[in-house]
Specification:
- The structure is a single chain.
- The chain is an alpha+beta fold and 367 residues long.
- The chain has three domains: 107 residues, no CATH class; 126 residues, Rossmann fold; 73 residues, no CATH class.
- The chain contains eight helices and 16 strands.
- The strands form three sheets. Strands 3, 4, 5, 6, 7, 8 and 9 form a seven-stranded mixed sheet that branches. Strands 1, 2, 13, 14, 15 and 16 form a six-stranded antiparallel sheet that branches.
- Helix 4 links the parallel strand 3 and strand 4.
- Helix 1 packs across helix 8.
- The longest helix is centred in the C-terminal third of the chain and has 30 residues.
- InterPro entries: GshA (IPR011718), GshA_N (IPR042520).
- Pfam families: GshA (PF08886).
- This is Glutamate--cysteine ligase.
């Protein structure tokens, strides 16, 4: 059993992680979606700009505050600007920003929250009626500040920049920014509405379905393979569908084609990722569920459960109808160890990829 191996080799596993993270430091904050089917456990999504901090329980908030303080102590200065998403009308997202702001503020940092692309400061309401003051930003000779004169020592992005790097953050910035701005140079040639490039997607799906089926037969699993098609620039669960064959792609209905047409901020889907579909055997209140790990640096500080009453164990649960619960205090130690290991592997892989992309960019390999 995987749990037994990880328990026996716990010290060696920790040494291995310590060695790799010393070479490829984890970013400040990540969330990792994990799927456990009984025959396989895998990370299926890593987010460098997570929302959902408002779902943290009391203990998780305390762990997060300590972890933030430890991570950020490597940077000089105590003035922090959090750059957030522009969709501040989403009250649940405002809940998350307020929770993040409060955790950092209670850790001893001076905080302001800013948004790119607004001309003047504004106040927005959370789902509980709390007020969040959001500042307009300016860039004067590479120094980013609020229009009210707050000059941060450090800029923390809680914005995935789906629409690209905004002008106020473009170019050489005087302050440190985390995560660092990295342009991956992603390209594609897919249009699900006009069906441009769909034959290639269907072929890729068929090939992946075949390989998954071979593994199922090898291990004697009586399961039906399926594949998630995900927008390469997808976020917030948008631009995701599941298919069971290449024919499903070729004969996609209008509803699914529209799902794969545009994502957040009306950005078009032009490139996709094909990912093995891993069913979840986790259940919360009789609903299909999946673990969601929040990490500060390389360490998990919160174990959430995402559940959805309207979706099956085969589907994307990050969809309308989903809810969250902090389950950190109720996880068996064996399960926690497995989730933690899988989550840390995902964070490490993301850190390595980010470093390689940045290195390639600096060396002229990306444009």
């Amino acid at each position: 059993m995987l749990e037994d191996v990880l328990e026996r080799r716990a010290a060696a596993v920790e040494d291995w992680f310590a060695d790799w993270f010393s070479r490829y430091p984890a970013v400040l904050s990540t969330s990792v979606d994990v799927r456990s089917s009984g025959y396989k456990i895998a990370p299926v999504d890593v987010n460098f700009f997570p929302a959902g901090y408002n779902n943290f329980g009391v203990d998780a908030r305390q762990r997060a505050k300590s972890a933030f303080l430890e991570y950020l102590s490597r940077y000089l200065g105590s003035k922090v600007l959090i750059v957030v998403e522009s969709h501040t009308r989403n009250k649940k997202y405002v809940d998350s920003v307020i929770a993040l702001r409060d955790m950092l503020g209670e850790s001893g940092f001076q905080l302001e929250v800013g948004v790119c692309g607004i001309a003047e400061d504004m106040s927005v309401l959370s789902s509980t009626g709390a007020t969040l003051d959001v500042r307009a930003l300016v860039n004067c000779g590479g120094e980013v500040s609020t229009t009210s004169g707050f000059v941060p020592d450090l800029i923390i992005l809680n914005n995935d920049l789906t629409s690209g790097i905004p002008g106020v953050l473009d170019g050489i910035i005087a302050q440190r920014m985390i995560p660092r701005l990295i342009w991956a140079g992603l390209t594609g040639d897919v249009d699900f509405v006009s069906k441009k490039g769909i034959d290639n997607v269907a072929s890729g799906v068929e090939d992946l379905i075949s390989k998954i089926g071979e593994k199922f037969r090898f291990y004697g699993l009586n399961c039906t393979p399926h594949v998630f098609i995900k927008a390469d620039n997808g976020t917030y669960g948008m631009g995701v569908i599941e298919v069971y064959s290449g024919e499903d792609v070729l004969n996609m209905n209008k509803k699914n084609r529209n799902k794969m047409r545009k994502i957040k901020e009306n950005n078009p889907v032009e490139s996709v990722v094909l990912q093995e579909g891993v069913p979840t055997n986790e259940v919360f209140c009789n609903h299909a569920a999946e673990p969601l790990l929040y990490c500060i640096g390389a360490e998990p500080v919160c174990y959430l459960c995402r559940y959805n009453a309207t979706r099956s164990k085969f589907e994307n649960l990050n969809a309308p109808g989903c809810g969250f619960a902090d389950v950190g205090s109720g996880i068996a130690e064996e399960k926690r160890r497995v989730w933690r290991t899988v989550g840390k592997l995902a964070i490490l892989a993301a850190a390595v990829e980010a470093e390689e992309i940045e290195s390639a960019y600096l060396n002229g390999g990306l444009s």
